[in-house]
Amino acid sequence: MSFSHFIRRAINGSTSRIALSARSTSSSIFASRSFCSEKKNSNASSTKTAASDVSYYHLNGGPSHMRAAVFWEPGKPLTFEDFHMPRPKANEILLKTKACGVCHSDLHVIKGELPFASPCVVGHEITGEVIEHGQLSDSKIIERFPVGSQVVGAFIMPCGSCSFCSKGQDDLCEDFFAYNRAKGTLYDGETRLFLCNSGKPVYMYSMGGLAEYCVVPAHALAVLPKSLPYTESAILGCAVFTAYGAMAHAAQVRPGDAIAVIGIGGVGSSCLQIARAFGASEIIAVDVQDEKLQKAKFLGATHCVNASKEDAAKTIKEITGGLGVDVAVEALGKPQTFLQCVQSVRDGGKAVMIGLAQSGAKGEVDINHLVRRQIKVIGSYGARARQDLPKLIKLAESGIFNLTAAVSRTCKFEEAPQAYRDLDKGAIAGRAVVEIM
């Protein structure tokens, strides 16, 4: 059996179904707290906050509140605040968050480089346990994600019904960009997060995953087999998800292609593994830190280039016999690396941009070279949740994608602010994950 055939079988082959028994939400699971004060009605289910007139409630046998890390404004540290328990609506699911990845996209928001509604809860790369379904949810959703299921969530949360979702282009979901990215809400135009002390709303970056509980549209979730760990599997929802979208959809990598990845952080290192899984012949890792480049060799890189010591585009051309690579991926979001990416591809090749930049940043390109040499410059934000997330789970379950090697640090919930500070300093090689269990 050829390697490419094995990969196709690993991604598309049938797998045995895992029976998941619904578990009760017992008080042993939900430790009660005393941070919030509220009046309960006879069935302890709902009431109104005076400040916002938004209902809140107790989970059956559990708490009525939770903690989450809040971003207030640029220059101010994340703080942990108490929230009323978020309540899912139709076709949404309440999760007990188990783990949340530490991503540069969150850091861009925290530093004020990307505009976003604030205050907000960041964190968009999560695993969790299904606790409750929103009222009037589709019966098929309830059947697919029974209470007690362990799941992984994609940061692009498709609505499932807009013009793009209807065509299978979940990565361009109109509601996700119009509501979540533009306003920090879910698709009824409302957040699910309200502070205990004031009832005031706090917005959601994706699902607002840096919290003890979060509400996620069901179309953004996939069942996580019990054979995969909660902590490491969190990166499937963004780092691996973004890499797969770039390789499978934007670049359409084929066996034998030569690939360069510029920026070997959490997403860039995932690109190396995906390129290897797709059968790339040469995989060139480019970064300015020798530590990251050393790790890149273990993740699939056949060559490493330190761009602080040599001309990256020139070296890539030398490695490929003067041609350049079939696909170059830019995973940093900087004007300098944007240019390196375009300069590194062969005639007719593809330069795929996946790194988010500071708002308003511009990338330069030689127009004549682009036209005469048929260079394709393609933007890619992520993969397609409903189609691709189950494939990524199979890659991880089969061992083709090594989750353990991709996660370089784990930390406690209370250590999340420090993890972002370390990420900003370049002190995290690979991906850090916050354990919230």
UniProtKB/TrEMBL annotation:
Q: Tell whether NAD is among the UniProt keywords.
A: yes
PROSITE patterns to which the protein is assigned, alphabetical: ADH_ZINC
The chain positions of domain Enoyl reductase (ER) read: 75-434
The cofactors required by this protein are:
Zn(2+)
Q: Gene3D superfamilies annotated for this entry?
A: Medium-chain alcohol dehydrogenases, catalytic domain, NAD(P)-binding Rossmann-like Domain
Entry keyword set: Metal-binding, NAD, Oxidoreductase, Zinc
One GO CC term of this entry?
Answer: mitochondrion
Matching InterPro entries = ADH-like_C, ADH-like_N, ADH_Zn_CS, ER, GroES-like_sf, NAD(P)-bd_dom_sf
Q: Which Pfam families match?
A: ADH_N (PF08240), ADH_zinc_N (PF00107)
Q: Does the keyword Flavoprotein apply?
A: no
One Gene Ontology MF term: oxidoreductase activity
**Entries under PANTHER family matching the protein:** GROES-LIKE ZINC-BINDING ALCOHOL DEHYDROGENASE FAMILY PROTEIN (PTHR43350:SF2), NAD-DEPENDENT ALCOHOL DEHYDROGENASE (PTHR43350)
Family statement: Belongs to the zinc-containing alcohol dehydrogenase family.
- Protein name in the entry: Enoyl reductase (ER) domain-containing protein
Native species: Capsicum annuum
The beginning of the lineage is: Eukaryota, Viridiplantae, Streptophyta, Embryophyta, Tracheophyta
